[in-house]
Amino acid sequence: MCMFYFYYQQKISDLAGWQVSLVMLIGSGLNLIAVYVASQIGKKWNSNRVFPTLVALTGLALLLVFFEPLCFFFLYIF
Asked: Which pairs with CB-CB distance under 8 Å and at least 24 residues apart come from 27-31?
């Protein structure tokens, strides 16, 4: 976690230290929610049905790299 803190503090220089911590805290909370949602999706749908959608969403997330510095924020959060 500390490594990410210093990395994001350097890359997102517009944010203060506490704001970087808040972004990381929100991201951690969303990751916990995502684990719960993933388990619920796994109970309802077959992985072969969900996989193509996840691949498309991952590709869209990688396209955000062209829109720096917000891409770091969104890639960490989601």
From this structure: 27/76, 27/77, 30/77, 30/78
Question: Contact 31/11 with Cβ under 8 angstroms?
Answer: no
Chain position carrying tokens 């969104």: 74
Residues 6+ apart with CB under 8 A from 72: 8, 11, 12
Instruction: Quick: pLDDT tens for 6-16.
Output: 666 666 667 67
Rounded CA separation 77/73 (Å)? 6
pTM: 0.51
